[in-house]
Design a protein that fits this description.
The complex is a heterodimer of chains A (234) and B (436).
Chain A (H helix, E strand, L loop, with lengths): L6 E10 L6 E11 L4 E5 L6 H8 L7 E6 L2 E2 L5 H11 E4 L11 H6 L11 H14 L15 H13 L5 E5 L7 H15 L4 E5 L3 H4 L4 E6 L2 E7 L4
Parallel strand pairs in A: 3-8, 3-9, 6-7, 7-8
Antiparallel strand pairs in A: 1-2, 1-4, 4-5, 9-10
Helix pairs in contact in A: 4-5, 5-6
Chain B lengths: L1 H19 L1 H39 L5 E6 L5 H9 L5 E12 L25 E5 L5 E5 L11 E9 L11 E4 L13 E5 H10 L5 E3 L9 E6 L7 E5 H5 L4 H4 L3 E7 L3 H14 L6 E5 L2 H41 L1 H9 L4 H38 L13 H27 L5 H4 L1
Parallel strand pairs in B: 5-10, 7-9
Antiparallel strand pairs in B: 1-11, 1-12, 2-5, 2-8, 2-11, 3-4, 6-9, 7-10
The chains are: A alpha/beta (234), B alpha+beta (436).
C-alpha cells in the first residue's frame, strides 16, 4: 500500500436539484482508497450510493468538499480533463451491462480503446482486447454478439471493457444485480482479481454476501459513509 | 496524434453506426439523393452550356485576350497590308468579300449572302436582299429592280481572305479534308475551305464549281479542299488572300474591310503597318481596337440563370436535409445509453458530436457518389441518344465542377442534417447510465 491514496474524498456534499425541492443526498462523505483496496458500499435505495459513484467516476461534480486523485484535487476539473481521467484512471461496471447489441464482444471491449484518447493500431488494439477477455475467461466468445451470450458472460464482457485500459480504480455499480447468485459470485471473483494487480475497487451493492468479500464494507446513511464491518478478504 | 486519434475514432465508430443501421442510412440517402442530383445536374448543365457558348463565341469572335483591330482600307492600302502581314505568325489579317459559286448570271438562292434557312424564300421581296457582315449581323438592303437576275443554281458566300492561319485565334475544327496551306506559293486556282453552311449548300444544290467574286469580271475555278466548323450561319469560304487577290482588281479590294487578329497589343507591328498604309493613302488610316473578353461577358449572362436553378436545387436539397435531420434526431434518441456509455469510458463530448457528424457526412458523401454516378451515366446516355442532334452533347465528358458541386452538396447536407443531432448527442448527461 503506497502512502499516497488513489482517491481521497474529504467532506464531499451533493444536493440533487430537479423540478421539486432540492434534496441533499451526500452531506460530507469521507473515503480513502489505496491501490489494491476493495471497498463495498451498502445502503438502501435512494441513499445516494450511485450518486457517490458518479462523483468518484467524474460523471458529476460535488457541491463542496475535496476530491483528491493521486493527491491532486479534481473536484472542479473541467469536462475535457474529466473525460481523459475517466479513460486513464477509471473502469466502470454497471448493473445493466450496456453492451452494444450490433457489436461483437471484441468490438464492445474495443470501444473503450476507440474513445478519442490516443489511438492504437488495430493489431495492438485487438491484442489488448483479447488479453482483457482472457482475463475474464471468455476469450473464446470474442466474436459473439451480446444476444448469443448469457447474462454472466455479458457482464464479463462489460468487465473486460472496464479492464482493457488497465484502470487504477474499478467502480462497480451493483454489477451482480441482474445475475443469479452463482454467476454473481463469479463476477465478484473477476472484479476482485483486479485488486491483486494493484487496482482499487469500489463496489456498490445490496448484497451482503458480495460486500463481505471486500476488504472494507461501508454503509451510506444520511449522506455519510460509516463502517459496516471488516470484510473477509482483509 | 490527438486530432488524428479522434478523427479515426469518429470514422471507426461512425462506420459501425452506419453498418448497424443500414436500412435507415439507405432511407436517408434516398431522401437526400434528389437534392444532390439536382445540384449536380444544374452545375453540369451550367458548365456544359457555358463551354458550348464559349466555344461558339471563340469560333465566331476569337479566343479571350485576342486583340481585334479594324482598319479603314483602300485599293492601294490593302496590297500593302497583305504584303506586310504575309508570313507573320503573330498576326493574321482578314479581308471579307462576297462571292457566288454556281451557274453564272443567275440570282443565288441566298442573296446577301443570307443563311440557308432563308434560301428561296424571297421573304424580303424581289427588290430586296439581305446582307450579313462577318459577325453574322444581317440587314435588308433595297436593290434596283433592273438589276434583279433570274433565280438559278448558285449560292452566295462570304469569302474571307486570310494572310495566315487564323486558327490560333479562332480554333476552327476541320471536319473534312484539310485546312489551307499558307506555306507554298499561291495557286491560280484558289483553294477554298468551306464552313458547314457552305458545304451543306454545295452538297444540297449540286453546283458547278465556278466562282464569281462580286464586282469582278474574271471567274476563277476554285478547289474545295476542306470543311470547318466556324459557328457561322452564313455560308462562308476561307481562302488565302494572295490566291484570291490575284483575281481581284484594286477597285474592289478598296471596298473590303481589313481586320487584324493578334495577341497582346502588337503596337510595333501596328505602327509599322499604319505608317506603310498611310504612305500610300490619301485618307488617314484609323485603327479601331477591341479585346475579346467573352468569358466574362457570357459568365455574367449565365450566372444569373445558374444561381436561379441552383437555388431551386438547394430547396430540394433542404428537403433531403430535413429527412436526414429527422432520422438523425430519432437515432440519437435511440442511442442515448450508447452515447452516455461512451462518455463514461472517456469519449469527449466533441468526439460524440463528431461521431454523429461523421455518420451523416458519410451518408452525404455516399449519396453524392451515387448522384455523381447517375449524372455521369445520364450524360453518357444523353450523349448516345442525342449527341448527333445536339452539338453540346456530342462526345461530352462529365464536368469535374459538377462532381465537386455534388461532393460539396453532400457534405453540406451531412453537416446541416447532422449538426443538431450531434449537439444533442454531445449534451446527453453521462449519469444516464447510472440511472438506467
Amino acid at each position: 500500500m503506497s502512502d499516497v491514496p488513489l482517491i481521497h474524498l474529504d467532506g464531499l456534499t451533493k444536493t440533487l436539484t430537479g423540478q421539486g425541492e432540492p434534496r441533499p443526498i451526500l452531506s460530507g462523505v469521507n473515503l480513502t482508497v489505496h491501490p489494491g483496496d476493495s471497498v463495498a458500499i451498502l445502503g438502501r435505495s435512494g441513499s445516494g450510493k450511485s450518486t457517490l459513484l458518479s462523483l468518484i467516476g467524474l460523471f458529476d461534480r460535488p457541491d463542496s468538499g475535496r476530491y483528491l486523485l493521486h493527491g491532486n484535487d479534481i473536484a472542479r476539473v473541467p469536462e475535457r480533463r474529466a473525460a481523459r481521467l475517466r479513460s486513464q484512471e477509471f473502469g466502470f461496471v454497471f448493473q445493466r451491462f450496456f453492451l452494444l447489441k450490433h457489436l461483437t464482444a471484441l468490438q464492445n471491449v474495443s470501444m473503450a480503446l476507440v474513445n478519442g484518447q490516443g489511438w492504437l493500431p488495430r493489431r495492438k488494439r485487438r491484442a489488448k482486447v483479447m488479453a482483457a477477455l482472457e482475463q475474464v475467461g471468455i476469450a473464446h466468445l470474442a466474436r459473439h454478439k451480446p444476444a448469443r451470450l448469457s447474462g454472466g458472460e455479458q457482464q464479463r464482457v462489460a468487465i473486460a471493457r472496464a479492464l482493457v485500459r488497465e484502470p487504477k480504480i474499478l467502480l462497480a455499480d451493483e454489477p451482480t444485480g441482474a445475475l443469479d447468485t452463482e454467476t454473481g459470485a463469479l463476477v465478484i471473483d473477476v472484479l476482485h482479481a483486479a485488486t491483486h494487480r494493484g487496482c482499487g475497487l469500489v463496489l456498490v451493492t445490496h448484497d451482503h454476501a458480495h460486500a463481505n468479500r471486500m476488504q472494507r464494507v461501508l454503509r451510506l446513511t444520511d449522506g455519510m459513509l460509516v463502517p459496516e464491518h471488516q470484510g473477509v478478504f482483509r | 496524434m490527438g486530432l488524428s486519434g479522434r478523427f479515426r475514432s469518429a470514422l471507426v465508430i461512425g462506420g459501425q453506426g452506419i453498418r448497424a443501421r443500414k436500412l435507415r442510412t439507405f432511407l436517408s440517402m434516398v431522401s437526400l439523393f434528389l437534392g444532390v442530383l439536382a445540384i449536380v445536374t444544374v452545375q453540369a448543365g451550367s458548365v456544359l452550356a457555358n463551354r458550348a457558348l464559349l466555344a461558339d463565341i471563340e469560333l465566331r469572335m476569337a479566343k479571350d485576350g485576342t486583340t481585334r483591330v479594324n482598319l479603314s482600307s483602300s485599293g492601294k492600302t490593302v496590297p500593302i497590308a497583305v504584303d506586310t502581314l504575309a508570313g507573320r505568325s503573330d498576326v493574321v489579317g482578314t479581308l471579307t468579300a462576297t462571292a457566288i459559286i454556281g451557274e453564272p448570271g443567275v440570282r443565288p438562292i441566298n442573296p446577301g449572302p443570307s443563311p440557308l434557312k432563308y434560301a428561296n424564300q424571297d421573304m424580303y421581296g424581289n427588290s430586296s436582299r439581305m446582307v450579313c457582315d462577318s459577325s453574322g449581323t444581317c440587314r435588308v438592303m433595297e436593290q434596283d429592280a433592273a438589276g434583279i437576275l433570274p433565280r438559278g443554281q448558285a449560292v452566295e458566300l462570304q469569302l474571307v481572305l486570310l494572310t495566315g492561319d487564323i486558327r490560333p485565334y479562332r480554333p476552327f475544327p476541320v471536319e473534312a479534308g484539310r485546312w489551307l496551306d499558307f506555306g507554298g506559293p499561291p495557286s491560280l486556282s484558289p483553294s477554298l475551305v468551306l464552313n458547314r453552311e457552305a458545304a451543306t449548300a454545295l452538297t444540297q444544290y449540286r453546283l458547278p464549281a465556278e466562282m464569281q467574286i462580286i464586282s469582278e469580271a474574271k471567274n476563277p475555278t476554285p478547289r474545295i479542299i476542306g470543311t470547318v466548323h466556324d459557328a457561322n450561319e452564313v455560308p462562308t469560304a476561307y481562302v488565302r488572300a494572295d490566291e484570291a487577290m490575284a483575281w481581284m482588281s484594286s477597285a474592289s479590294l478598296g471596298n473590303l474591310s481589313l481586320e487584324l487578329y493578334l495577341n497582346g497589343d502588337g503596337e510595333p507591328l501596328l505602327q509599322t503597318l499604319l505608317a506603310r498604309m498611310s504612305a500610300v493613302s490619301t485618307d488617314p488610316v484609323e485603327p479601331y481596337r477591341s479585346v475579346v473578353n467573352s468569358r466574362e461577358h457570357i459568365g455574367g449572362q449565365l450566372d444569373l440563370m445558374r444561381w436561379i436553378f441552383l437555388g431551386m436545387a438547394a430547396l430540394v436539397l433542404l428537403i433531403g436535409v430535413a429527412g436526414i435531420l429527422n432520422v438523425g434526431l430519432a437515432t440519437v434518441g435511440e442511442r442515448v445509453e450508447e452515447f452516455a456509455l461512451r462518455r463514461a469510458v472517456g469519449t469527449p463530448r466533441l468526439l460524440l458530436a463528431g461521431i454523429v457528424l461523421a455518420e451523416t457526412l458519410i451518408t452525404g458523401l455516399l449519396t453524392a457518389a451515387a448522384a455523381i454516378g447517375v449524372g455521369v451515366a445520364g450524360l453518357q446516355v444523353a450523349g448516345t441518344l442525342f449527341g448527333d442532334r445536339r452539338e453540346m452533347l456530342h462526345d461530352v465528358a462529365f464536368p469535374w465542377e459538377a462532381g465537386v458541386a455534388g461532393v460539396v452538396a453532400g457534405l453540406v447536407a451531412g453537416i446541416l442534417g447532422g449538426l443538431f443531432p450531434a449537439i444533442r448527442a454531445a449534451r446527453i448527461p453521462i449519469a444516464t447510465v447510472m440511472r438506467a
